[in-house]
Amino acid sequence: MQEFQYCVPTKIIFGPGAEEQSGRAALEEGAKRVLALYGGGSAVRSGLVGRVQASLENAGIHVSVKGGVQPNPDISFAAETVSQYRNTSIQLVLAIGGGSVADTAKAVAIGLAGAEGEIESVFQKGRRPQGALPVGAVVTIAASGSEASPTAVLSDTETHEKLLCTDSRIVPRFAILNPELTYTTPPLQTACGVVDILMHTLERYLASQGRNETTDALAEGLLRTVLRYGCICLECPDNYEARSEILWCGSLSHNGLTGLGRECAFPLHALSHELTAAYGLPHGMSLAILWPAWARAVEETLAARFARLGRSVFGTAEADAAADARRCIASLTAYFSALALPASLSQSPAGLVPDQDLRRFAANCTRGGGILAGPGSLDFEAVLEIYRAANTGLSSACGPF
Ligand code: NZQ
Ligand code: ZN
């Protein structure tokens, strides 16, 4: 894949050494004072933070650097960062890392543009942000697509909640994508990222009523690409072509392109946020664990979509659509297992979860008596069944596909 630039509306700066353009990209946004955030240290060890800082300083930009963003980032870190930098005239917040850093940068951008308590008001009370400073992202892991999405996801470790804000003003102005920066992504994180990218397109694809052939074709091409190159990234972590494809798909998967012309409720994401908030599981891992049970619960409702997905992406050729659908669900389940992801909560770091927790998750997702937003009209009991099957693994709970 060759270098290129793409802007809808995030300007994508793609290719080896792309981080050297951080300074120019920030200057184009009119920023003379930048706050650069990073995570637990991988970006410092690789020398990336130093290179980005040098690029910014060479462009005449004053840089403040702060690390320490944790995976599934806590709201308190973002709030503390806003207090620390409130009176420092920061004009752009730059994330150097994955989705956790990007989402924290977005929250800080909201906080710095608003009054005291803005982060809590937006993320805990659901109020519209007063504004947001521009955000940029230097991406180190192909996964969340936050570098091109209008969403920020924080965690509240006290209440065990995932807190979301979606607002067009926090879509990053630019995203720097150098596939080589992702070579060091640990295998588990690589696998979780692949699942997340697949799910961002799949949740949109499955929501379709089949009236947008171009969007379907884009989605199917993207899914085939991710399935193919995801495995190669795990086998050969420094395969440039594979890392390129996955990184670009990660951004495309969550910038709206693969869902154009359709409404999407992201039910699997809603189910998974309960698990990551409660047990700190990687986001992609919880999606993979939930997939077989959720897919089975909506298999009839979405039979036509699963069948099309099976034929176009997994090469199924069964006798009828229902069999294609079933084969499709089983194929993706097998793919996740080939990525060495746990098939159940009991096999994950969460361990076997008490039923009372599962009931709480189901109540949260159905807002106490309603239905889970998305296909299948899944009520509390149906959602509880999904969590129970995910707890022990579908094959032991319901028999194999
Ligand atoms: O913190 P460091 O030391 O950098 O290590 C990170 C972290 O431990 C490591 N890592 C990342 N790039 C690396 C690397 N290690 C070595 N080399 C590299 N090149 O990977 C670990 C996970 O990082 P994280 O940023 O948490 O991963 P990801 O990008 O998957 O982001 C997950 C977060 O994004 C949210 C999730 O809820 C979760 O909080 N999401 C955000 C979305 C959005 N804003 O649109 C949508 C998604 O659906 C998702 O909900
Ligand atoms: Zn996701």
State the helical fraction.
Answer: 40-55%
> Beta-strand level of the residues, as a percent range?
5-15%
The average pLDDT is 94
Low-confidence stretches: 396-401
Order of helices and strands: EEHEHHEHEHHEEEEHHHHHHHHHH
Please specify the SSE layout and strand pairing.
Blueprint (H helix, E strand, L loop, with lengths): L3 E4 L3 E4 L7 H7 L4 E6 L3 H4 L2 H11 L3 E5 L8 H11 L6 E6 L1 H15 L4 H6 L11 E5 L11 E6 L4 E6 L7 E4 L9 H20 L6 H23 L4 H14 L13 H13 L3 H15 L5 H11 L7 H18 L16 H11 L14 H13 L1 H5 L3
Parallel strand pairs: 2-9, 3-4, 3-5, 5-6, 6-9
Antiparallel strand pairs: 1-2, 7-8
Helix pairs in contact: 1-3, 4-5, 7-8, 7-9, 7-11, 8-9, 10-11, 10-14, 11-13, 11-15, 12-13, 14-15
Overview of this protein structure:
With 401 residues, the chain is an alpha/beta fold. Helix content is 49%, strand content 11%. It contains 16 helices and 9 strands. The strands form 2 sheets. A 7-stranded mixed sheet has the order 1-2-9-6-5-3-4, with helices on both faces. Bound molecules: 5,6-dihydroxy-NADP and zinc ion (ZN). 5,6-dihydroxy-NADP binds at residues 39-43, 71-72, 97-101, 103, 140-141, 143-146, 149, 151-153, 181-182, 184-186, 189, 192-193, 196, 254, 269, 283.
Task: Describe the structure concisely.
The chain is α/β, with parallel strands linked by helices and 401 residues long. The protein has helices at 22-28, 42-45, 48-58, 75-85, 99-113, 118-123, 187-206, 213-235, 240-253, 267-279, 283-297, 303-313, 321-338, 355-365, 380-392, 394-398, and strands at residues 4-7, 11-14, 33-38, 62-66, 92-97, 135-139, 151-156, 161-166, 174-177.
